[in-house]
Design goal:
Structural class: alpha/beta
Shape: globular
Oligomer: single chain
Length: about 575
Amino acid sequence: MTAFDGTEMLLKAEGLTKRFGSLTALEDVSLDIAPGERHALVGENGAGKSTLVKTLFGLLTPDSGTITWQGKPLMLRSPAQARALGIGMVHQHFSIFDALSVAENIALALPEIPLADIDEQVRDLSETYGLRIDPSRGAHSLSAGAKQRVEIIRCLMQDPRLLILDEPTSVLTPQEAETLFHALRLLTDRGCAILYITHRLGEVATLCEEATVLRRGRVVGNCDPRETPTARIAEMMVGSKIAPLQRPQKPEGDGPLRLRLHSLSVPKEKTGGRALRDLYLKVHGYEIVGIAGVAGEGQNELMAAITGEITLPLLKGTVEINGKRIAHRGVTERRRMGAAFVPEDRTGHAAVPAMDLADNLLLTRHAESAFSRRGLLDRIKAREWVGRVRDAFDVRIPGERPPAASLSGGNLQKFIMGREILRAPKVLVVNQPTWGVDAAAAQRIRQGLIDLAAEGAGVLVISQDLDELFALCDRIAVMHRGRLTPARPVEWLDAEAVGLMMSGETPDLSKIAAARSAERAMAEAERVRVLAEAQAATEQAAEDEAAYPPEQPPDELADEPETGAEAGRAP
């Protein structure tokens, strides 16, 4: 890799503004990146991160402002020009052809390099940066983490001076993320700068030295994330403090059984994706159960089997809702039995973009008597409920009856989640509940799930965000290659153990249990010590009071003996 020898900034953007019609996506944005710097770009959904990155990579041209590269003014007009200058980008969604090998995928982007030379360079870079990959391996057999390593190596072969990564850990296990961080540190040690876009603020504090915060298209602050609390960065992103989750006390013992899977299997040829193999799961009332896993391990197929999009005879085994077998029933019948569902794809699966919000609400509630009388749908009632969802989940709705497509991704997700939570279902199954929403909206959605469970519902959350699962769940299971581990209490688990299970390994949970037991013992000892000190202080105070009784208060002057002069004075 060619290190940059200059002393000036590697990249300097000043006053960038970009408008799309009446929408100002970027307004007077400035950004400095030094050689070898690990720089984070953070902001809520719709803050302008994607627009800024596309501008820096030549996909968009700013309406005003300047970009300076290694001290020279620059007008980027294409990604090819950006790559030629030394700007590389790893997109959130991979550009990998499963039918080709690793080396062949890389050759598509680097046609000037012979295939034999690509093999050698891939092996050298893999060894140098710890990004283990076999260039002869078929891409179809790669995990999501391995596919990302292919994307990074493809960028490294173009000798970048600035590497842009967009949500790079969204499909990685914790162990794969740590491998990525190690490689990025090695890169910056050699002079390559990193621009790191993510919503995971813990990663920013772990990896980055500088952070730029965007809100509504403007830079609202810069900070050193190693010294700035993540809560403060989140506050800068949304413009207000984010209230912590409130978890009410749960009843003793298990609640009623709300959802049960027993020996559930679906062949691959029936799903069109990952086969499900012999799954077992129970979700009780008053609890939230999470399913972790990297993308593509069978989560969508499981969701389809629970919602009724896949039914008997395509699946085998048992699916029960509130004690009734429903594997042969469709989606509407399952909703009538008290179930509600939120699929991962919000546009086209959870909502119809061209329909207004009232009609989108009726899509999941048309079978309820409150919204349908004598075969006629009550749209006035539906519009009233749209207002309830808007108020409860702070959905920003443009106009009176806007189509779903007019809402931002985050607001549409809040509407969909609110639509199902306010139904007060006995079973709620949701896939990626806070995907694409900002920190404040995510907290509102999570609190809604907690409140629903507190009312006696059983909630099943499928999520790739381990922080979210540990914040929400009472128990967590892991899906890997179509199989599901037992759902274990969160007290028995940590992120490392769940990450190992996401990779198909079996962690030693006894160490975690021992550590948790020691923590509980220390907490109990501290509680006993504090109580003993308080009791001793109370007893000492009682002894002191008995030994030294308080003095009598002085009598009123009227009761004191009169002096001679006073006795002779007329009243």
